[in-house]
Amino acid sequence: MNIIVCVKHVPETAEAEIEIDSTGTAIKKTGLVFDINEWDDYALEEAVLLKEKLGGTVTAITMGSEDSDAVLRKCLARGADDAIRLTDPQFEGSDGYAIAKILSRVIKNLPFNLVLTGAQASDDGYATVGPTLATLLGIPHATMVKKIEFNDGVAQVNRELEGGLEEIVEVPLPAVLAVQTGINEPRYVSIMGTRKALKKEIKTLGLVDVGLSENEVGEAGSWAKIEKMYVPPVEKQADFLSGSPEEMAAKIAEILKTKGLI
Amino acid sequence: MTEIFVLAEHRQGQIRDITFEMLSKGRELTGQTNTELTAVLLGKDVKTHANSLQDYAKTVLLVEDPKLENFNADAYHKVLSSLVKEHKPLLTLIGHTSFGVDLAPSLAVSMNTPLATDCIDLEFKGETLTVTRQMYGGKVNVKATLRKAEGYIATVRQATFPPEKKAPVNGKIVEVPSILSEEVTKKRFIKYVLPPPGGVDISAAEVLIGIGRGIKDGSNIPPVEGLAKTLGGALACSRPIVDKGWLPNDRQVGSSGKTVKPKLYLALGISGAFQHVLGMKTSDLIIAVNKDPKAPIFGVADYGIVEDLFKIVPALESKIRELKGK
Lengths: 262, 326
Description:
The complex is a heterodimer of chains A (about 260) and B (about 325). Chain A has seven helices and 13 strands. Chain A is an alpha/beta fold. Chain A has a single domain (about 5-215), classed as HUPs (Rossmann fold). Chain A is globular. Chain B has helices at about 15-35, 45-55, 75-85, 100-110, 220-230, 240-245, 275, 310-325, and strands spanning about 5, 10, 15, 35-45, 60-65, 90-95, 115-120, 120-125, 130-135, 140-145, 150-155, 170-175, 190-195, 205-210, 235, 265-270, 285-290, 305. The chains are: A alpha/beta (about 260), B alpha/beta (about 325). Strand 9 of chain A pairs antiparallel with strand 13 (about 190-195) of chain B, so a sheet runs across the interface.
């Protein structure tokens, strides 16, 4: 089973305070810690688990500047065999559609049975790259994947629906599966693995290499263009309690008592 | 006249809420664009659904086929794209649901139609479609314009628009023969899998302590569980806690978990992503503890504490014991 896994280097913002930069269309990146997109982390782990079970290779692909090599090194350390970084100044401003176009140009020339992506990215949250890529490659897909099994060249996958429900669908290979978080337990990287990964080559490809023109990528080749970014208006705001932890705890206890909850 | 399409979403015999939410927004957009509202209903034996949609849309396009009984992105794609080709709607609205995210991107690519996903608002100015979306887990909003085109596709976030009240439109039902041939679609629906019943029913609890990413490690859960016990409540959580295997999935609150409405929801280290908020926002009393003063959870909480949860938990535990002791 030859697997391609598409990963993205994103800032970790779940617990960080973020600010909008001077362009008004992006956030300030300085001071933020970057890592593999959480969904892609599970896709990577699934790729490596499948390789360990069925043999074959795992190729990790990302799009981005040299900083993104960090995420590819992580993939190599975790068990990927090869790594490709797609990079070109013209790629900047690409939305999920343009990214899928660029990826499709590279992937169609690689031997593969399965492409894994995260179901979405934590930064832009488009949730489009996997199924868009599949359509451009002319192969089937499934999104929100929580379990993958194979049977005679057909993937049987569980898709997460709302309210805890799942559905099982069959998807013939080759296919693109967009993985939901929680499908597995991503492993930690061993120091040995990290060291070995540093020695591996990361292949880079640009606009000309992928055979696209300037107006097919970046903002020009995208479906949508961000005009403005802003902090969401606050409709309602909590009453903030103040004081030391003990004082605030006392205030909560008082509120609970008043409401008859203690 | 040009139309705005709303793809009706239904599952296991029920029209899903998102359908009425989209009809509501769709109606508003028909006013901005001098278009008519059309509901598109694909399924098997869904005439009763078509009858209920008549109260909301001017036209109900109904395609019935045994192959459309359960949602299948391949089959839906084939049927919907033929309807779009014929009617050339200005906009097709699809839910940003598990079904919608499986369908919309491939439909957009094959129709060469710009797509905006997970929209929380949409507005036409002249022929330009501007959408509002969220990025970075809801910490910022963006306004984005779509590339100019004859038609657009957008997926719409659940529980964002108020569901449409019935309108005296008395729409007409237009039955369209299915174009699906005997050939089997690439993808095949097998069955639904119901979640196994869990030991604790959090949707019945009067007091819930919800834990999120801020808990940092599974080993930090027992003290919080102790606090839940002292309060006579149960432990619930946001998605990352289940993903990491620290709590079973029947404890998950949110759009992919359970909806709860306890008398008290104490959110510890939960940032308040919209998926989680959807499952707990109607709780009687919400108290949130988070280190980030800008965390979206404070937008739904009645009381907020900007502090390390590990300092609040023991302090609160001893305060409550003290009060109970009296």
